[in-house]
# Entry
Amino acid sequence: MIHIRSKREIELIRNSCKIVVEAFEIVRDMIRPGVETGVIDKEVEKYITSKGARPAFKGYNGFPASSCISVEDEVVHGIPGKRILREGEIVSVDIGVECEGFFGDSANTYAVGEISPEKKRLMKVTLNALNEGVKQAKAGKRLSDISNTIQNIVEGAGFSVVRDLVGHGIGRKLHEDPQIPNYGAPNSGPRLRPGMVLAIEPMVNLGTHKVNTRSDNWTVITKDGLPSAHFEHTAVITQDWPDILTTIVN
Ligand code: MG
Ligand code: MG
# Structure
C-alpha cells in the first residue's frame, strides 16, 4: 500500500531531509585523498545526533554504521571503516535520517581529487537520469514512467542500470511501498497521486549491470570491477512539479 501523506507528515519528512542535506555539506567538505571513510561516517553521525535525530541506517537489519560509503566498484551499502580515499576514485555516500518518527534519504557521488573523463561522465549521466526521473514523479503519471526515463538516459549514454536494487516509498519507515526499479517499460504500475513520497535512486554502472555482494554481506559490488555511481532524492508527488525535499550537495 502506498501512503498518502498529510501536510504535517510531509513537513516532518522535509525536516528529516533537511538534516540529511546538512550532513552532506559536511561530507562534501571532507572528501579528499587520504581521508578514512570511517572518519567521514563519525562526523555524519555526530551531526545527525546533534540535531536530535537518528541515523536511520545504523542498526537497520544490523548495518553497523550511520552512512553507506561505497568506493569505485562498490555500488551501494559500503561499510565505512579503515578504507582510505585515493586520488582519482569516485565515492558514493548514502545518508538516511529519522526525526520525530519520519524519514529522509539521499545519496550523492563525489570525485576524490581529479578523476578520469569517463568517471566524470558516469556521474553526470547518473545525476541527469535522477533529475529527469524525478520530473516524471507527478500526479497522473504511472510509477514506471520514472523507471523508464532513467533507463533510457542511462542506456542511451552506454552505461547500465543496476536491477537488483531499487528506489522506494519513504515516510514512517525508511523503506515503504512502492519499489521503484530504475528500468522497465513506461505506463505501468500504480498511478501517482499527490501526497505520495518517493525516494528515487538510480545506481548506474560503467560496465555490466550485474552485481555481487561481498562476504561482509552488505557491500554490493559490480561483477566486472568497473565503477558505479549513485544519486538519490526524496520527493513528494504534487499536482504538477514534484516537491523535491533533498538537494544534491556537490
Ligand atoms: Mg533509499
Ligand atoms: Mg539512500
Summary: The chain has a mean pLDDT of 98. The chain has one domain: 7-244. Residues 7-244 form a domain with the Creatine Amidinohydrolase fold (CATH 3.90.230.10).
